[in-house]
Design a protein that fits this description.
single chain; mainly alpha; 182 residues
Length: 182
């Protein structure tokens, strides 16, 4: 098992990941903790002291609510099942768009820094190839994850078709670059 690192998860991510998890299905606070730990293979396990205050904050903002509207109080009571609200979905969508705009540049720059820290003296090209191998391993883990089983066959097929298309574009790019080398 990989050792957990303090501050391995960017600040503010918990808020949006709780919303994301609740788009999959209504769940209790403890289920959120368990799901995060499972999905990160134990690297990230936010405790009750993080989860429940965040749930209360999301509830007060109207981003989540009790799944059973007839309950008087939907806060930190043991056993309260939570669901995302329409407002919560809108906030999550805005967050996703904001992150997509910055993701490629940040990934490239942070990737270089990680490469220098983790692989001192190793050529960046070799680090990139190692990263590609790890991406394939991560894809395998993704396909074995419980989340994958919740996706419809039609969406799975579209995913693989898109993956093949992107992989072909990447291969075409590499072949073109290879042909340019004299």
């Amino acid at each position: 098992m990989i050792e957990r690192e303090p501050h391995a998860v960017p600040r503010g991510l918990l808020r949006f990941y709780i919303l994301k998890l609740l788009t999959e299905k209504p769940m209790k606070g403890y289920e959120v903790i368990t799901r995060i730990e499972e999905r990160t293979m134990g690297i990230w396990k936010p405790g009750p002291g993080s989860i429940y205050p965040m749930i209360e904050s999301l509830r007060k903002e109207g981003l989540i609510q009790a799944a059973s509207p007839n309950k008087k109080r939907s806060t930190q009571r043991r056993g309260t099942t939570l669901q995302i609200t329409e407002k919560g979905r809108e906030i999550l969508s805005k967050f996703r768009e904001n992150v997509k705009c910055r993701m490629d540049v940040q990934t490239l720059n942070i990737g270089r820094i990680w490469a220098e820290l983790v692989f001192p003296g190793v050529e960046l090209a070799d680090v990139y190839l190692g990263g590609r191998r790890r991406e394939i391993e991560r894809l395998g883990s993704f396909l074995a994850d419980d989340y994958w089983s919740t996706i419809s066959s039609e969406k799975k097929k579209k995913f693989f078709e898109a993956y093949i298309k992107i992989t072909q574009e990447e291969l075409d790019f590499v072949k073109k670059r290879l042909n340019m080398i004299k």
